[in-house]
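Backbone shape codes:
***
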Amino acid sequence: LQLSYNHTIINMYIVATLLLLVSVCDGARILAMVPFPTKSHWIVMEPLFQELASRGHQVTVFSSFPQKKPLPNYTDVDCSVTIPQNMNTFSIEMIKKAMPSPWGTTRFVNRLHEGSCKVLGEQKVKNVLNSKERFDLLITELFASDCFAYLAHKLKIPLISFTTSTAMPWGSERVGLPDNPSYIPNYLVNFSPEMTFWERIYNTAVLIYAKYWHLHVYAKQTQTLVENIFGETLPPLHEVVGNTSLVLVNSYHALAQSRPFPPNVIEIGGIHIKESQPLTKDLKHILDNSINGVVVVSFGSLVRTCSLPKPLIKMFMNVFSKIPQTVIFKYEEDLPEAPSNVVLRNWFSQRDLMEHENVVAVIGHGGLGSLTETVYVGKPMIGIPFFADQFGNIENIVRRGAGIQLDYDDISEEKIR
């Protein structure tokens, strides 16, 4: 009897010890509203949602880019049909006409916002609001997407915002982010942190304008828009976004600039960079046999390269025909005048290409995602910024000796060489 009793006690200790070692996980139900149809934005955000799902959270994602293969714990809601088709790609001339100044940029953002917010009227969103299943958290993009913050208000859940660029001037107050214009250039100007006195004055004026515009124009229009969709009176936008719990910023201080961040603002620059994948056989063959080096040319997913002015394309081709390197050029159409050393591709994984030892330089627009990849693999960049934060992004790598900048409006064959 004593032996049996001792054996029972030992078993109880073993069970108790095992129970203490067991990790108890409580997965959350997370709603993500990110329908903005720009591939470069989505590439940065997608890894977050995939990782949350892989860690056991139930993630429902409203986006314009459904997963190609179903993932466990990940529910896709395709918004691409609702979003106006002209919002996913633009010509350079259209962008420069729409965004000639900070004031034009804010108007452009407003138009994009109105297009994205059409999703709120979808039956799929109404199903979420009327569902008995409760969500625990809402994640939205900060760019042109503030209307979705009202879902957090209606569902009474915490809100996290994600910005795929550096911090925006109208996103500061909601989380107490300092944005001193004496040394922090804002999203709407093309300055580096080493501003002159007059640049600081201009930066201050633009910051004041941006905050005023967001509070008295954009916010009121957003509130009216959402009230019309939901058919009810809602609180002002600044009160709703003021409940933001966390902002994730796609920047990295060593690449951008040092600035104070409160605990509820976290830099996650490089989150989209994954392990490089094997190249396709044809691209690998081209890269392996380009003994003089390879130049990669890509202007991102928002701008169609074939929409560049024909004289500029001809200028590029003339320059490329006179250099010994092979040029891999992202171009969406046939180009009969392309010289023999220029390889055209409708799309390629820039990150995988740049890993190859024969790549010697990258020509790009300075979008933060591709720029971060370029710096990550240690390749120099020739930046030709077109709009928004691209100017500041290129300025930052020029200051650090990682690239040079060319002015799109003053470009020539001599400068490209």
The mean pLDDT is 87. The longest strand covers residues 29-34. DSSP finds 14 helices and 13 strands in the chain. The CA atoms of residues 319 and 414 lie 8 Å apart.
